[in-house]
Amino acid sequence: MDRGARARDWSEIQERMLVPLYEAVYERLEVGPGTRLLGLGCGSGLALLMAASRGAAVTGVESSSPERLALARRRLLPEEPGRTRDGDTRTRADARLLDARPRAAAPEDPAYTLVTSFEPVGCPADGSEELGGTLAAAVPLARRGSPVVLAGWGPPERCATSSVLRVATRLADPLRGTGSWRPARRDDLEEAARRAGLRPDGSGRVACPFGYADTGSAVRGLLSTGLFDAAVAATDRAQVDKEVAEALHPHQRRDGTVWMPNVFRYLIARVP
Predict the structure, then answer these.
(1) In 3D, which of 22, 46, 47, 68 has the Cα closest to residue 225?
(2) Under a CB-based contact definition with an 8 Å cutoff, are residues 51 and 38 in contact?
(3) How many CB atoms lie within 10 A of CB 224?
(4) Neighbouring residues of 133: CB distance < 8 A, sequence distance ≥ 6
(5) pTM
(6) Are 240 and 231 in contact (CB under 8 A)?
(7) For residue 205, with 0-12 CB atoms within 10 Å meaning exposed, 13-18 middle and 19 or more buried, which class applies?
(8) For residue 79, what are the contacts with CB-CB under 8 A and spacing of at least 6?
């Protein structure tokens, strides 16, 4: 699978599906000019761009996809960015984007006042352990009492996309556990927070429907998440495309668009 094409599909098709989640979190936490935000797994930067538009100073860390990070730079950086001594790139709006682990994002000024990790916990199936290490490295960079936001899928019965994502798990056998999807568990977010030494302090649910112009764009958007990589490795891209398209059929409207209501959950935890 072409990594550059997949990053573009994520940026142009899939990432916007989580805009209601970003908006709900930023509104609740009153993100604005006084916010110093560290975004973990910032991807192609849409969530950072939304925070920056509210006046926040943002730092994004993305170590798993250089292709997505390149797209984030296009979104957030001016045509002639300045370079700091350590190679970080900044915008006039005080944004930093790093292809590194969180410890490389140590702030030069006051500590971060908000840390976000919007990639759904438990999705992929083997992602929780990696998230724990990422959080452990990020928490010391935040001011005491600052919120850390974790996100996850809601109950499977309230997420229409669950039926499509089960294709990834089924086709990935016998490679299950190497990146495919699993349903959310009730206490996923709380467990991840406690493992990182954080104190849960509130949560919320947000409707994030997945809407696509047609089945083709839906397949491209969903495969851009990386949740079908193990399935592609176990079978082939054509087989995965075919079975995902079939799973999408019940969600296709008469005009050809695809619509899947979903609920996402977020947890606000505090730095001790």
Answers:
(1) 68
(2) no
(3) 23
(4) none
(5) 0.89
(6) yes
(7) middle
(8) none
Residues 6+ apart with CB under 8 A from 225: 10, 14
User: Which pLDDT belongs to residue 43?
Assistant: 93
Determine how β-strand 95-98 pairs with β-strand 89-90: antiparallel
Taking the alpha carbons at both ends of the chain, their separation in whole angstroms is: 42
CA distances from 112 to 104, 162, 181 (A): 13, 34, 31
User: Which domains are seen in the chain, by residue range?
Assistant: 3-159+182-211+262-270 (3.40.50.150)
Q: What residue type is assigned to position 192 of the chain?
A: A
User: Distance between CA atoms of 28 and 5, rounded to whole angstroms?
Assistant: 34
DSSP at 141: G
Angle at 161 between CA 158 and CA 178, to 5 degrees: 115
9, two tokens:
């599909």
Q: How far apart are CA 257 and CA 249, in angstroms?
A: 10
Antiparallel, parallel or unpaired: β 82-83 and 95-98: unpaired
CA-closest candidate to residue 189, choices 137, 143, 142, 154:
154
CA atoms within 13 A on the CB side of 243: 19
pLDDT in tens, 5-47: 999 999 999 999 999 999 999 999 999 999 999 999 999 999 9
- For residues 87 and 119, the model is more confident at 119
Q: Which residue is associated with the tokens 């059929």?
A: 249
Which residue carries 């798993």 as its tokens?
64
Instruction: Kindly tell me the number of DSSP H helices and DSSP E strands found in the chain.
Output: 10, 11
